[in-house]
């Protein structure tokens, strides 16, 4: 049994959920297999090591944003999103990222959350209407994973790590991008571009560098992997809720 399922009781909880919602077990075979698999999947790519790996989903470290048309709405709202970020970053002490102690080798990593695995931060969304409008176009924004301003201070280095599931696609909308900032996903490094979306699979090993003297900021968000069926999305949304307080 995978570490996530063993620790959080995902198998039993998902079976009960399926029974309560009249979902046949066979419709969730891929999800149950992911929760009970004891060995890494042979389908996983190099440097791809999520705790929960659902087989049969198209897998690559970097994605073309043209394959995800909803990213255009994010980019169209960039000037307003950037203005909202500037207002809150200038006037508030953003909370420390929950993984910063474990993953930030140097520097500071802070966040301003809008969604977390089914939890909605209503006050933050109300304070950032342009963000709320753009996020509303993202498939699964409320339950697929996270959405937040991610701010890495000068000199911040985030160690290599893998996201815990492969059922989501992660997007960074570049907001403030000083020189000498890069992210590696899989084997390839790429910089961010202000006003443009970087789309990737965070179940691949990735690491982040801000070697500049200025903060780097992005709007980070997760969408459902388009290869999931409708019922698999519902099941994963339930599991995300179950795991919300245990996984960052």
UniProtKB/TrEMBL annotation:
Q: What class of enzyme is it?
A: oxidoreductase
> Matching Pfam families, A to Z?
Asp_Arg_Hydrox (PF05118)
Residues covered by the Aspartyl/asparaginy/proline hydroxylase domain = 75-226
Q: Which GO terms describe its cellular component?
A: membrane
In short, the EC number is 1.14.11.16
Keywords attached to this entry: Dioxygenase, Oxidoreductase
MF GO annotations: peptidyl-aspartic acid 3-dioxygenase activity
Q: Which domain of life is it from?
A: Bacteria
- SUPFAM superfamilies under this entry? Clavaminate synthase-like
Please verify whether the record's keywords include Oxidoreductase.
yes
- PANTHER family tied to this protein: ASPARTATE BETA-HYDROXYLASE DOMAIN CONTAINING 2 (PTHR46332:SF5), ASPARTATE BETA-HYDROXYLASE DOMAIN-CONTAINING PROTEIN 2 (PTHR46332)
Family recorded in the similarity comment: Belongs to the aspartyl/asparaginyl beta-hydroxylase family.
Put simply, this protein is called: Aspartate beta-hydroxylase
